[in-house]
């Protein structure tokens, strides 16, 4: 394959052929007229024949130039279209990575509302607990559980404090005549008994004596799985009540005490500082902060 001429020279030829003016081509390309003339000279030397006929106060395409110009213009148009299409895909595709709990308990249920409000933006959601470098990886926005915003170059917005309280099915509570005091919970099976949230909540409630001894060990991990097991009456689960508002309202789960304990963590919306003003990021951020107000107890 023969090597292509320098792209700068081809670009100069396309502009001069379109305008039939070295001056106008130079203005469009941000070059001097002399620089454009030099690029055309290089291309003519490469082709081996003049591409323009120089006349007093005007130029015209030579026979070879007239044959070459439409094909070169078409090639540049194909490139412009390809880059425009790619840019459109990038600008209209919002890639989100979210921790599984937030993705399953809130985002999946509400993301459609964002797309109804912004039909021009396509959304790709990845639900993963793995750490993602938002500055370098192909995600625009992340939702992560953090003790506090930490990473430099990243903007963080609190969506919800990860406070927790015991939840259980009403039928399980009835097996011991109801839950009247925090101590009553110790009489029931506990899901994920080694979860540190159990120790923290009972300590906050002033209830000594919680132990995993004699309790079947399980490790469901995700709040969505714990919530399902709790609704099935399998045990008491330490959960973030804000994620289970509908289940509590419908009576599938009960929160016997209003007391919330905290490990100092929260769910944060995060994105690189460099993308703060990207239109799709701004639109999702504004929608997200407004939509999650009930989770934070804001009106």
UniProtKB/TrEMBL annotation:
This is LysR family transcriptional regulator. It comes from the Bacteria. Keywords: DNA-binding, Transcription, Transcription regulation. GO terms for molecular function: DNA-binding transcription factor activity; sequence-specific DNA binding. Residues 5-62 form the HTH lysR-type domain. CDD domains: PBP2_GcdR_TrpI_HvrB_AmpR_like (cd08432). It comes from Devosia epidermidihirudinis. InterPro entries: LysR-type_TF_proteobact-type, LysR_HTH_N, LysR_subst-bd, WH-like_DNA-bd_sf, WH_DNA-bd_sf. GO terms for biological process: DNA-templated transcription. The keyword DNA-binding applies. PANTHER family: GLYCINE CLEAVAGE SYSTEM TRANSCRIPTIONAL ACTIVATOR, HTH-TYPE TRANSCRIPTIONAL REGULATOR.
